[in-house]
Design a protein that fits this description.
456 residues; mainly alpha; 84% helix; globular
């Protein structure tokens, strides 16, 4: 046992990064991801009491939400990459300016998204989801408005978390996320479960939680200003040159997220054409399989500052070694957690109150993920985190765009709609796309070009 513990520590430590540092960074991110997914799980379960129309609307707009929010979330990720590299090279003054610029960049992008899509809300929803039932569309309009109004407040949180993760202060970002999501769930209990306000209640909960989190984010910045090397003057006199630099670094991240989530919206449109029950089955299946993605998603998030600091020190050996260790841990985690979820499937479904007719379909989708999570997910989502941290985001962007639009969307339509395999066929294509994309990323990782970029 002692020998295994020593080997495990060896796998997750390097020449310049200790095991204790990695544990201190990763554990809060895992806890954060656990509560985030759990909150989404509970959120879907609570809104299910309002009927399949409400569930369908939330899931439908949810795809569009991930498309929009990734624009300013990408700026936060770009900030994490740049700040982690400055931190690795001990350029602390530049790190402080970049932290402030990250927050400004997030807010500016969020405001642009909010204003644009508030104006274009109805045309966009009609264009994408015009086949939805009138009750579903009405709920979708309400939910989308509530989401858009919350974005500028959420952007401050994204920028703050991105800065903190760049220096490995994931405990502080954990506290911020827990506060925001705990208030969200508490408000949902009041507005959705008690007052039965349905989707409108979700929007109240969302904006109240983001408003409170905004002020807590500002306090968190103040409390960690000595570590981030932030000064008040950086906020009084924004450095627009640095803000543009952060946004330029974030452009590949944003492009990749937009292209990838844009493809997911097209997939959602295909699912909408299959009817309300299939939309609800998709929402429930996604919530269920996300439980096993908690730790691997946290590993992907954590690998960005870890690999970024390694690259900042020009220690490629550590970057390679730790990336491989994270890949193996992600795969093993999927095997264990999905195996634990399998016997509890029927109990879990009782939380969602789905129509009896769709439960077998949800179970079949889960079985597809049971196999493909373990085999392919880590290579498709954890591995590119290291490539992005090294500044190779242009490559990951091109690969993700091509695999999504040429394969997932095209084959999803062909199998799911044209050949009539429906939702199960669409999920099968999604899983196989992970294998294709992950294989390409692995071939890139084996070479040298991924770490030859200069960001700072």
């Amino acid at each position: 046992m002692a020998s295994f513990a020593a080997k495990f520590k060896g796998w997750f430590s390097g020449e310049d990064i200790s095991f204790s540092f990695i544990v201190a960074l990763v554990i809060p991110v895992i806890i954060d991801q656990f509560f985030l997914v759990s909150f989404n799980f509970i959120n879907t379960a609570m809104i299910s009491s309002s009927g399949t129309e409400a569930v369908s609307a939330v899931n439908m707009v949810g795809s569009l939400h991930f498309f929009m929010v990734q624009v300013f979330a990408a700026v936060g990720l770009g900030g994490t990459v740049v700040i982690s590299q400055y931190y690795g090279r001990k350029k602390l003054k530049e790190m402080g300016i970049m932290s402030a610029s990250t927050i400004f960049g997030c807010v500016l992008m969020a405001l642009a998204i909010t204003i644009t899509f508030l104006i274009l809300r109805d045309p966009v929803l009609n264009l994408l989801f015009g086949d939805a039932e009138p009750a579903v569309m009405k709920n979708a309009q309400v939910y989308m408005t509530g989401l858009l109004l919350s974005y500028p407040m959420q952007a401050v949180v994204e920028g703050t978390n991105g800065s903190l993760r760049g220096i490995g202060r994931t405990k502080a970002s954990l506290k911020l996320s827990l506060l925001m999501n705990s208030i969200y769930i508490l408000c949902n209990i009041i507005f959705v479960s008690r007052l039965n306000l349905g989707v409108l209640g979700l929007t109240y909960s969302l904006n109240i939680s983001r408003f409170i989190a905004l002020f807590f984010a500002l306090y968190t910045l103040y409390a960690n200003s000595h570590l981030l090397k932030i000064r008040r003057e950086y906020f009084r006199r924004p450095d627009f040159k640095k803000i543009r630099h952060i946004i330029r670094v974030a452009v590949p991240f944003a492009t990749e997220s937009l292209a990838f989530n844009g493809g997911k919206i097209i997939m959602q449109i295909l699912i909408v054409s299959l009817g309300t029950q299939n939309i609800a089955a998709n929402a429930i299946a996604q919530s269920w399989v996300q439980l096993s993605e908690i730790i691997p998603s946290a590993l992907s998030t954590s690998l960005v500052p870890i690999a970024g600091q390694c690259i900042g020190r020009k220690n490629i050996k550590d970057a390679r070694k730790l990336t491989k260790s994270f890949l193996v841990l992600g795969a093993v985690t999927f095997l264990v957690v999905d195996s634990l979820l399998l016997p509890f499937f029927n109990v879990g479904m009782k939380l969602f109150n789905p129509p009896e007719a769709v439960i077998p379909l949800i179970f079949q989708i889960f079985l597809v993920y049971y196999v493909t999570h373990f085999l392919f997910w880590s290579f498709s989502f954890i591995l590119p985190a290291a490539l992005r941290a090294a500044g190779d985001a242009k490559f990951t962007t091109v690969v993700s765009m091509l695999s999504m639009w040429l394969y997932r969307v095209g084959m999803g339509y062909f199998l799911g709609i044209h050949l009539g395999f429906g939702l199960l066929g669409i999920f099968g294509v999604t899983a196989s796309e992970w294998a294709i994309r992950g294989s390409i990323f692995y071939l890139r990782f084996r070479g040298t070009k991924w770490y030859e970029n200069e960001l700072i």
